[in-house]
Protein 1
Amino acid sequence: MSQPDLFVVCRNCGSEVSPYVTECPYCGQRVRKRAPKLDRSGGDPQPKRRRRRPTLPRLRAEEIAGIAPERRPYATFGLILACLVSVLLFQADDTVDLGYLGVPIFEDPWRFFAAPFLFADQIGYAFVALAAVAIFGTLLERRFGPLPVLAVFVLSGAVGMAVVALLETPPLFTETDAFLAFGANGSALGLLCAWLVDDRLAARRSDERSNDLLGVYVVAIVLVLLSLAEEAANIGAAVGGALTGTVLGLTLPLFTRKSAY
């Protein structure tokens, strides 16, 4: 291994100066552009350090395996935003037909999928239903990703509206018998039941998650009572959405996120 020079000679005054300076201390002449690096190894070659592969941190006390809490529930936010936009559109022009399910007059199949996103001017109804969607949509999306949340919301709402059209159509009707069915009550119950089924299946596998089920049951009761009190919400939509969410909840383990946690 080459050793650094003990001194260098200044070309201007001929003085011997340290090799670790850039200017001659006697005449100020620049002797080199930069000082050489100091060899701190004591002359022995140092082995190259291997970079450690990043390791995952241990689960913290508030974290649950299989959930990536840093991921934002964009699909849930998107569903809620779409519902809020429909409210604004109704406020701008209440004569526009956005896809309300008119029983038994307007029962086109595409309305089954559009009606769950609509709330007209029912602000209280929208607040309760969308609050439930926000809670259980977020929980499902953090565990299974966005696609199952979208599927449960859309299918539960559509099946709920189909049940309304099936059960609420009398053999003989007049225009005065018709009413509008809309809103995400069935979709909210579908998300709740899908989450509850997955939670109970996990408990049977001895994967107890210590969730507050009392609060879940309270939300479910509120949504059912809302269906009984609000004609647009309709108990048929609640029953159809809950049953659909229960069935889809059985398939959720197929979408388990391979999370870093």
Protein 2
Amino acid sequence: MNVLFITLDQFRGDSYGAAGHPVVTTPTLDRLAREGVRLARHYSQAAPCSPGRAALYTGTYQMNNRVVANGTPLAARFDNIATLARRAGYVPTLFGYTDQGIDPFQSDGFDDPRLDSYDGVLPGFAIGHYLPESQATWVAYLRELGFDVPYGWAAALRGEPDRPADTSLTSFLTTKFLEWLDTRDSGWFAHLSYLRPHPPYAAAGEYASLYDPADVALPLEPVEPAARHPLHSMALQIPASSAPHDEEAMRHLRAQYYGMISEVDANLARVVDALESRGEWRDTLIVVTSDHGDQLGDHGLIQKLGFFPQSYHILGIWRDPRLATPGRVIQQFTENVDLAPTLAHALGLEVPSQFDGRVLTPLFEGEEVEWRTSAHYEWDYRSHFIANAATPWPWDRSLSRLNLAVSVGDELAYVQFADGSARCYDLRRDPTWRTECVDAERMLHAAQDMLVWRQEHLDREFTDLLLEPSRPGRWPSAWRRDGNAPRN
């Protein structure tokens, strides 16, 4: 069995054909959904990229992995999808990036240049083709073709509409993967990590004009100023997160985002064609998800931040050719932390106690099982204030109050801020998160549900076993089998 683990950066859960989008066309993703399982209410657990990916790769909530920003290192103790794959006998190979910085205790000291950036590779991965944040190899490729490409990854990406789509970053990475695939025998594991549809909002070549801005719906307006949480008001004042006020500019931005999605979909078609021509289509497990979503103008915001669901509701597709009933749509709440334990189960491995997520296989098979009644995610914004912390630890605890946690259910969405404030939205009356719940009893139940979630998912690495002669509890089976500690 081959495994292809695909991430599409900043991909909203409503922005492809199988999800019912009225404009965007995505025939390849739609096919994967028809031949697999589509997770209709699938959520990322954090934003931006590093926190979202840490949760995805390690199967843990942010409250346990503590990667809270682009720049927070991932502790070396965590298991992840690459180390899982190695235990299953694969050499997991990366194409793109993982945005996971080195554990400082694994470095060569304070002057180690690997501590300069979070732009690192998740432990366990072999390198097929690595794209650092600078996108250096792609920029060099464009210059070899004769394009006058400016320095800086964002500047290079803004020029994509003026170049042919077959020279795009997405096409470049796809080609690198396909070149590698030509050298492989069956039994491979690859992580294909695309940057698009991540901003800049500029689609490549003909995809920049694929969608008429006039056909693109306008986003949800923000609530009136008096009803906004202060964090929402602050974000609306920051140029990097405030949506364009001009209608034409807003429609253009959305049309470019949809163009990027269709271009990624077209490149996935190249991958599908290659798998079919190699005779491996029926022997390849394909997972497609994202690290987080994009506000895309909703609530007056762009990019990924805050507590609104547009930043966290993402696509989720699991296409396993061994499924008895393909085409199933899962309406239960699913989360990115579920993918690592489900992958472990699919590879015939023991599911590590580290994982906060649940194995999705019973849902894939249509079984009636007790399941979560809400999805959860977190956002931490201390990174903007770390350099200016007022007084040193342990006296100053202000940074630890710069975060929030969200619980989204069928009827209520509850947001708890670490400064003690809260918001509760009545989704039964208004699914757009612009009508607050004023029923104190319902709010109390929502807050209690979140507290129970946090208590249930506290780190359990050693909590479910005891140091006694009979070795009671959840000891790894490898340890029980041969008496030695299992190694990642």
Protein 3
Amino acid sequence: MNLEDCHNFDDFRKLAKKKLPSPIFHYIDGGSDDETTLKRNTEAFNSCDLIPNILRGTGKPDLSTKIFGRKINIPLFLSPTAMQRLYHPDGDKASAKAAEKFGTMYSMSTMANNSIEEISNISSGPKLFQLYIHKDKSITDDLVERCKRANFDGLCLTVDTIVAGNRERDHRTGFTTPPKLTLNSLMSFAMKPRWVFDYLTNKKFELSNVKNKTDKGTNITKSVIEYINEQYDPGMNWKDAEYVVRKWNGPFALKGIMSVEDAKRAIDIGCTAIMISNHGGRQLDGSTSPFDQIKEISDAVGDKIEIILDGGIRRGTHVLKAIAAGAKACSLGKAFLFSLSAGGQKGVEKLLQNMQNEIERDMMLMGCKNLEELNISKLIYRK
């Protein structure tokens, strides 16, 4: 199996599984507790159906939209995800270049293995930076100032990770950052010699954006869960969010909004966007899915703030349903991490090409010339 054989999410997942040691594959693949919410994120799209119109003469539809002050050519972009060097030696560089090629947004995590400056130097495409509030507030200030100097287009603050979810797969597989051999993981690394060779012969593993502020950026001997619990501020509140919004003074989203009440509060503190997200089902298991919430949130605030759906996207039809329900765009995480693992930049480009083809074809089948024609009248919810 190779990239040419990857036609959908499951194909990329299978190829990634062949290339990655078990702890790393399951770190991408897993969720928290019983993974009920993880499954629901995608299943929720089956709660409604699309209603096409025929004989519309659509021709080639316009897939472009505007988020964080930048036009993107497709209504889909790469979610901020940590430690991409675990999946491919080129890490964030590969993701950023692929996104730029398709005219869409690349998002960088605070916990990236490449720095803000590195990515700014290699990509002129739309860029979003994801913040976490650390206990040491100077880390937050430093990241915001560096993003300003590097001309990032927007910031988002992840608000659903004040403590790490119970990711039991990581406990079972012995996942740590950086990877280390344990009784649980020894055999899985031994069976992936190419991954081990690439990892050992490339740039040293580090959290490039925080390494100068905390030794945890270069000396991570514990699991990512322990890092979150030790470094992130569990007392983060609305005042902290408002402080960062004002300090940035530009396009800004809260990532992890799941209720109308919180969406309204985001507007009150000056946010220009919200990302409806449950962290890919990796935090509060048993919580609702982003798609389950989007119509209610859009009905309440859709004319006042940009809405982005993050979570569960596997198909072009999922993107169409999200936009019809009120999203300006969607972002995806697991899918692009599997494609990155499967083939680096070319893998991410193959995924984006697949998704662009699906969205374009589905728009034509819906009889829609542009995204504005996708609205709630195009959906029927099952009872």
Protein 4
Amino acid sequence: MPALICGSLAFDTITTFPGRFAQQILPEQVHILNVSFLVPTLRREFGGCAGNIAYSLRQLGGEPLVMATVGSDGHEYLQRLQSWGASAEYVRVVPDSYTAQAIIITDIDNNQITAFHPGAMQSAHLNVVPARDDVRIAIVAPDGRDAMLQHAAQLAAAGIEFIFDPGQGLPMFDGAELKRFVEQASWVAVNDYEGRMLCERTGETLESLSRSHLKGVIVTLGAQGCDLWQQGVRTHVSGVAATEVVDPTGCGDAFRAALLYGLERGWPLMRCVALGNRVGALKIACRGGQNHRIDPAVLAA
């Protein structure tokens, strides 16, 4: 069964700062912030939440349908999607824009500072959820503001269950809009920071959100694993130790791909998030969001 992935395709320029941001930023001087980070290493990767999720889902054996936008420079990305078996049927090329670009600086504690140029992503609302009987599950991941609003509404109207994954796009929405997303979704997936912001803006708690119609609220906690909330009950699912910590970029997307993979197959949510923890640990040992390999033994574990 294919999974529709609504989100961004982007080129990531990833750099590493061999120090700690906290040692360079003076809290009492943030009103006149003027900092520069020397980044000796730089590389360009394929990224964007939709691309990263689709990559890991395909690695797991799933069937990703990517609905996104690229600019006039995006043909290389389209070829890449097709090279590993993801459908690019619903990827729109916006000729007068660049493909979205993320410039990421990571410090030695794996903290990240990101500058993001949306480019063609600003036209993502022109994409419409396809009318297909074989699409039963989807994810609304970070994308253009209007696109996220419209695609969530379209999925709900079509009766397609979806994961609401606001990610770094969460600050774009006010409390009423976030409540509407939650009302339309079947699952919510956030990291711990996003979870706090979601609760603050909606006036809810994770417990109260999980007592609604939602089938689960998943809060990822990095190396500590994740918290799974269902009907007011929190269950902690321990993390998996990585063989090496190289690059956190795309770890959350890898987790969400595993979540989609399990949900497609009707797994219990606990099993889905446990797989997510394992796949996230594999991803963090590789640079970039789309270079890791998922051994079939991961599924058998």
